[in-house]
Amino acid sequence: MSDLPITVILPYYQAENTLKRAVGSILKQTFTKFELLLIDNRSTDMGPKIARQMAQADSRIRLLFEEEQGVVFAMNKGLLEARGKFIARMDADDVALPERLEKQHAFLLKNPEIGLVGSNARHVSDLPSKGLQRFVNWVNAFHSAEAIWTNRFVEIPLIQPSVLFRADLHRKYGLYRNGDFPEDYELFLRWLDAGVLFFQLPEVLHEWHDSTSRLTRTDSRYSQDAFYRTKAQYFAKWFKRVEPEKALWIWGAGRRSRQRARLLEQQGLKISGYYDLKNAQSKQVTCLSYQEIPNPGSQFILSMVGNYGAREKITNFLEERNYQAGSDFLLMA
Questions:
Q1: In this model, does residue 283 exceed pLDDT 60?
Q2: Start and end of every Glycosyltransferase 2-like domain (predicted)?
Q3: Burial zone of 217 (CB within 10 Å; 0-12 exposed, 13-18 middle, 19+ buried)
């Protein structure tokens, strides 16, 4: 095992316009004891030439090539080649602020119980859509291991390319998996399910650059349906293990909520009924007003309501009824 502290893994594909900026932000880190793996994933633009030029100027850069197209294969190539005790993720169109590696490395050394640490991020975009900005604002509000764990089925409240984690995690719990699902979300849920603790530093140490070509916008593996299939799989696994005696009720009886709930039934869970704004009895489902929610103890409530601002209202209502997040309810929208 190498005594090298950090390996930074940076896969790239058709990144000639941003690669130099991204690599430069790593080379300018205040923490200097790292190797940087630049993994060409079959680029046909000037990206590989830029990578070669930068590698010739800095011996910390290692150039790799991954024939199999896809970030899963490029990332796994890097993980298997990495020599560092800690692994830092980086995207070819992002910017790591100068103290990112120093502060994250120091945090993991000081907190051996934490397996992975991210940081708050700044969203950079010229696009008119405000969706990703709202997502970044949401992510930046969570820092503790408990908060990240409790919100894991809404989304993982971390910016994936901002993280640093212990290299033994992928050896214990597996590499990225390829399939019709978001590979980073599946990996994080799998590690959390295994008991790995995540944390997020409150400092902004990463710039997350948005564009029309970002995979989260263009690849079907990052669709809402793909996310909910992954959520259902890991929620069902956890619920069967931890809360098998409680009746599962869904908050939200609209068409979309029921569609999402069916994914849970496909994972072998029985849904006892639904809560919504008012009673809506039908032959298909039992639906009661949320005002009829009983005292905590016998039920577990999973919220499928995704309307903007609804998460906070539902959480506040349940906590006022003495429901505890994680043991009595969770959010999944």
A1: no
A2: 7-142
A3: middle
The confidence band for 199, taking pLDDT boundaries of 50, 70 and 90, is very high
Q: Please check whether residue 4 is in contact with residue 35, taking contact to mean a CB–CB distance below 8 angstroms.
A: yes
Sequence-ordered list of residues with C-beta below 8 angstroms from that of 54, at least 6 positions apart, any chain: 20, 23, 24, 27, 38, 61
pLDDT of residue 220: 66
CATH 3.90.550.10 domain position(s) in the chain: 6-222
CA 51 to chain centre: 28
Mean pLDDT score of the chain, rounded to an integer?
94
| Residues 6+ positions from 91 with CB-CB distance below 8 Å | 10, 22, 161, 209
Q: In which residue are the tokens 């503790």 written?
A: 144
Report the top-level CATH class of 6-222: alpha beta
| CATH 3.40.50.720 residue ranges for the chain | 245-331
CATH class of 245-331: alpha beta
